[in-house]
Specification:
The complex is a heterodimer of chains A (about 425) and B (about 290). In chain A, α2 runs parallel beside α10 and α3 (about 100-115) runs parallel beside α4 (about 125-140). Chain A is built from 12 helices and 15 strands. In chain A, the strands form 3 sheets. Chain A has a 7-stranded mixed sheet, sandwiched between helices. A 5-stranded parallel sheet of chain A has the order 2-1-3-4-5, sandwiched between helices. The radius of gyration of chain A is 22 Å and the shape is globular. Chain A has 2 domains: about 50-165 and about 300-380, 3-Layer(aba) Sandwich (Rossmann fold); about 165-300 and about 380-425, 3-Layer(aba) Sandwich (Rossmann fold), CATH 3.40.50.2300. Chain A has helices at about 1-25, 65-80, 100-115, 125-140, 170-180, 195-210, 225-235, 250-260, 300-315, 325-340, 345-355, 415-425, and strands at about 50-55, 90-95, 120-125, 145, 160, 185-190, 210-220, 240-245, 270, 290-295, 360-365, 365-370, 375-380, 380-385, 390-395. Chain A is about 40% helix and about 20% strand. The termini of chain A are far apart. By secondary structure, chain A is of the alpha/beta class. Chain B is mostly helical and about 290 residues long. Chain B has one domain (about 1-220). In chain B, strands 1-2 form a two-stranded antiparallel ribbon. In chain B, a hairpin with a 2-residue loop joins β1 (about 130-135) and β2. The chains are: A alpha/beta (about 425), B mainly alpha (about 290). At the A-B interface, α1, α2, β7, α7 and α8 of A face α1, α4, β2, α5 and α9 of B. Chain B: This is Urea ABC transporter permease subunit UrtB. Chain B: It is found in: Cell membrane. Chain B: GO terms for molecular function: transmembrane transporter activity. Chain B: It is a multi-pass membrane protein.
């Protein structure tokens, strides 16, 4: 009796395992919206309130990062309401859960725009979630404010990007490495669109700067162990490691790095995803390594002091502030500024105001200015060195804000053919 | 020769970790026929135990060793609760168990997201593990050797339990012929429950080892559950030696393919090889031969 049961089970299990593997590889695809005229907007702002949609993953793997962004958006909405609202109308936030699932992001965006009739939406974190929302927000001619640094090579009249694009984070990081006298560099990244695109850009710029790339490694997001790859770093003996690993996969990398006897004294890491919130969760003192961001909690300014103090008082806060949070906070204030300059909540009028007026905000990171053409923001790039208290000491800065150039058109070392290939690959 | 040492040693350690994670499954799935998709979350429970122990006991040198038995008990207790409340109603219905335990796994993950710091928690590697051993010129992380020794200890303890104790004989009797074991006075109900305790407890121990390597956050379990099932199925149900060999082969081959190509390609190659192997030999490497009819 058991023999047949075992056999049946093992066949079931084999099928199950195969299914799990396949489903874990399958990516979400959202059908592109047909370029027809947008359906008529159902947004009603005739009362004394305005509905805004917040779309963040509150469940699933990305909830780790996106819950904090959601709370920051609510904090900004509360602040704006306390000081009179937008055009005198109080914000009524409608929170939706993207559930770390890209088709869900598309569905919820559609619900927010067509059922809840919100005037604008804010949120997303992964590039996949943004790419799922993009066709929806374009179809209904809505607005989506995206708060995270990303791989660039994108612009949409319906999306505002308040995090850094590559020429405000990755290229400055390379300038910093050059200034440090770095000769050899090892690239370590998670295996998806952001690290692949970032590394393609890094390799081109490194060739221009005369920095030699001595190795390039990727690990799938769902694999934790980096020991074998780190053994390759030990062998290659680079001056620096450029880390484009995402989120919690950094922990496996950092642990393997220290276990292999590497340290910031011999082989420092520069990261574009480890911020104040991630540094204490690494399971090892990571002080001495670097990160490239626009905002750091350690920035000294009255706006930042107020931001930090407000956040520490806000119910359910995470204690520290970080770059994506700050970019989300800025996004709501930029929206307020846009609406008030346009004198309307109408999307086309807002986009026209973005082109016509100089939209600025005295943000915690410093004065930021919106580029009305590409919907990105001018930002100062900073390199911070991690201190033993997991705060960052700013050791390098671009000084003045860098104008956003998502397609890197102002960089002669970036060939048009590569740009076209990368845009095509990113979908 | 030099380039072969690192992948061989690291692959063996990866395989050892996979083995501890899979040993519990080899018991609950291999011996009892229960597909427990919440096994991954028991790994997570073990890793979180390591974190909580470190918060309570300041000395990281000591706390990681103490965490091992505590994690065994914590995860084992979770397993018993799951068995008593969900799984016992679904013996002989493996697919229903699969669905129900997937649900339990989701609930446990969300609980962890809500109850622990949202960015995940850091389990600190103790100083005595923060060294390297020189193996023919390759500075091998000591933590890898620790994983292999831990796997050896778990395996020896489990093998001794199954082979030399009266309880072990009862487990084997129940697996080979449940009805006959009952007629001989074995309480198969009790055997099921204790087997589940031991199997889930081993997941807790594996979780402590994983917390030294990877991020301790709600997704920890999902990263290992597929590979652990893969190893148990490829090794064949009902016997530990198949699981041991399969874990080692998967660990070492993944490391070599990673060294020669990239981490992503290596994973694809190994999965494809295992799927092909299971097409040819669906029963896995070894199977139990019994005199049970039908």
């Amino acid at each position: 009796m058991f023999k047949s049961r075992n056999r049946m089970l093992s066949v079931t299990a084999a099928a199950l395992t195969t299914g799990l593997i396949l489903s874990s590889c399958g990516g979400a695809t959202t059908k592109d919206a047909a370029p027809t005229a947008a359906p008529k907007s159902c947004v009603d702002t005739s009362g004394d309130t305005v509905k805004l949609g917040f779309l963040n993953s509150l469940t699933g793997g990305m909830a780790i990062s996106e819950k904090t962004v959601s709370k920051t958006l609510h904090m900004a909405a509360d602040e704006i309401n306390a000081s009179g609202g937008i055009l005198g109308k109080k914000i009524v936030p409608i929170q939706e859960d993207g559930a770390t699932d890209w088709p869900t992001f598309a569905e919820k965006e559609e619900k927010l725009l067509t059922k809840d009739c919100v005037a604008a939406t804010f949120g997303g974190w992964t590039s996949s979630s943004r790419k799922a929302v993009k066709p929806v927000v374009e179809k209904y001619n809505g607005l989506f404010f995206y708060p995270v640094q990303y791989e660039g090579l994108e612009s949409s009249k319906n999306i505002y990007y308040t995090g850094a694009t590559t020429n405000q984070q990755i290229i400055p990081a390379m300038d910093f490495l050059k200034a440090q006298g770095v000769k050899t560099l090892f690239l370590a990244g998670s295996d998806y669109v952001f690290p692949r695109t970032a590394n393609a850009i890094i390799k081109l710029y490194a060739a221009k700067l005369g920095i030699k790339i001595v190795g390039e490694e990727y690990v799938p997001l769902d694999k934790a162990d980096w020991t074998t790859q780190v053994a390759k770093i030990v062998k290659a003996k680079p001056d620096f490691v450029f880390n484009t690993i995402n989120g919690s996969s950094n922990v496996g990398f950092v642990k393997a790095y220290y276990d292999a006897g590497l340290s910031p004294k011999t082989t420092p890491i520069i990261s574009v995803s480890i911020a104040e919130e991630e540094a204490p969760a690494m399971g090892h003192d990571v002080s001495g390594n670097y990160a490239s961001w626009n905002y750091f909690e350690s920035i000294k300014s009255p706006a930042n002091a107020k931001f930090i103090a407000d956040w520490k008082k806000y119910p359910g806060n995470s204690g520290v502030t970080s770059d994506p949070m700050e970019a989300a906070y800025d996004s709501l204030y930029l929206y307020k500024e846009l609406v008030e300059k346009a004198g309307s909540f109408d999307v086309d009028k807002i986009n026209a105001a973005a082109k016509k007026y100089k939209i600025t905000f005295n943000a915690p990171e410093g004065l930021i200015t919106l580029d009305g053409e590409n919907h990105h923001i001018s930002k100062v790039a900073n390199i911070g060195q991690i201190q033993p208290d997991n705060q960052f000491k700013i050791v390098w800065s671009s000084g003045t804000p860098i104008a956003p150039d998502p397609y890197l058109k102002g960089y002669d070392w970036f060939p048009a053919a590569t740009r076209d290939a990368l845009v095509k690959a990113a979908g | 020769m030099d380039s072969l040492i690192a992948p061989f040693l690291n692959g063996t350690a990866d395989g050892a970790l996979l083995l501890i994670a899979a040993l519990g499954l080899a018991l609950t799935f291999g011996q009892m026929g229960v597909i427990n998709m919440a096994h991954g979350e028991f790994l997570l429970a073990g890793a979180l135990t390591a974190y909580v122990t470190q918060q309570v006991i300041a000395s990281t040198d000591l706390s990681i060793l103490l965490a091992l038995p505590i994690a065994f008990v914590v995860a084992g207790a979770l397993g018993v609760v799951l068995e008593a409340t969900v799984i016992r109603w679904m013996y002989e219905r493996p697919l229903d168990t699969l669905l129900a335990t997937v649900g339990v796994a989701m609930i446990l993950r969300q609980f962890v997201l809500d109850a622990f710091p949202s960015q995940g928690v850091g389990v600190v590697t103790p100083d005595w593990l923060d060294h390297q051993i020189d193996v023919f010129g390759y500075a091998w992380p000591l933590r890898q050797l620790f994983t292999i020794l831990l796997a050896g200890a778990c395996l020896s303890a489990l093998a001794a339990l199954l082979k030399f104790t009266s309880f072990g004989r009862q487990i084997r009797a129940t697996v080979q012929n449940r009805a006959l074991a009952e007629t001989l006075g074995v309480s198969t109900r009790m055997v099921d429950r204790i087997t589940f305790f031991v199997g889930s407890g081993l997941a807790g121990v594996a979780g402590v080892a994983i917390s030294l390597i990877a991020a301790t956050d709600s997704t920890l379990g999902t990263k290992y559950i597929v590979a652990a099932f893969l190893v148990v199925v490829a090794g064949g149900l009902g016997q530990l030696k198949g699981t041991i060999i399969a874990a080692w082969v998967v660990g070492v081959s993944t490391a070599f393919f990673t060294d020669w190509t990239t981490g992503s390609i290596a994973q694809v190659i190994v999965f494809v090889l295992v799927v092909i192997f299971l097409q040819v030999r669906p029963q896995g490497l070894f199977t139990v031969r019994t005199r049970g009819l039908a």
